[in-house]
What we know:
The protein is an alpha/beta fold and 350 residues long. It folds into two domains: 7-229 and 294-339, TIM Barrel; 233-291, no CATH class. It contains 13 helices and twelve strands. An eight-stranded parallel barrel has the order 1-2-3-5-8-9-10-12, surrounded by eight helices. It has a two-stranded antiparallel sheet with strand order 6-7. Strand 1, helix 1 and strand 2 (35-38) form a beta-alpha-beta unit. Helix 3 (74-87) packs across helix 5. The longest helix has 17 residues, at 194-210. The two termini are 20 Å apart.
Amino acid sequence: MTALAVGITLPVEDGLSARDLVGLIVEAERCGYDTALCGEVAGPEVFSLLGLALASTTRIRLASGIVAVYTRSPALTAMGFATLSSWAPGRIVAGLGSSSPIVVGSWHGREFDAPLATTEEFVEMFRRALSGEKLATDGRRLRSNGFRLAISPGSPIPGSAAPVVPVWLAAINPGMLALAGRVADAVFLTWCPPAEVASKIVSVAAGACSVDRAPDAVEVVTSFWGYAGPRPEVARERLRRSVLGYAMVPTHRAAFAHAFPGLDQAGAAWDAGDRTGALRHVDDGVVDMLCAIGPEAVRDRVLEYREAGVDLPIVLVTGAEPGDTDGPRATIRVVAEALGLDAARSDHGT
């Protein structure tokens, strides 16, 4: 890479409007960021938001971060990404992942069953659907017979080896990391301190080698929560609660073991219904290991990830509290200036 590539992830759990969120993407494009991601939790619906962002920008790459493989069929997901990519081929990325039992089971009423096998089948069917192939699949987890996509996602960028819609696979645990190595264009890491990146890359590389792929064919993308706005202490307490909340997700808990010394004690308190007691085990050291607070800390974390082998560090530009847009905007601007991002970087596609 000739220029430092950095992305942002939108704070989709902050209660911001679509206008606010698209405004953050527009600001990120103006400041020279490479990519903007929109997650999907319980706020904006990802394809609607990405469509609004695509129509409001001209250069920045747009990605889902992350779409759950249980809440839409591979065919419907291919329709969504093909629609976006047909507007601007080369600027759309499909970020996919298994999500969690809470989102999939409790919120959407789907069975969170065999996430590794389901994700593998989903990615295969999604790629085939996106290519225009007529699906005739009766898998163990997913089925589709007779579907053929009736809109083209466009052609790959001339001279680029990347597919027109790359697949980034969210992975925390070893099995999913190896799957990313086998089937994805990039592995998407989160809640992963720089010191843990190398071991994750080893698992991805092993997966790639198992199917005769070159390990460096799989890019490494990593997101982290960052705040460089005017209320760092308020943000710290918010991030403390965020760390705890994500660490207590059953499918995520084991991944926090190295960065969170009090994980077992926090888990015991959480499982007993003592949220306040659980939070006491998330000390400042844990917050600083997993998040970055302050302009220098966010800048340094980006550079640490690059040094650790991450191709694209991504800052989740959180607010100091729900509804805060000043913090995310300040983070976007201050970090871009601190890193010397190039606001005139070349287009991804159109």
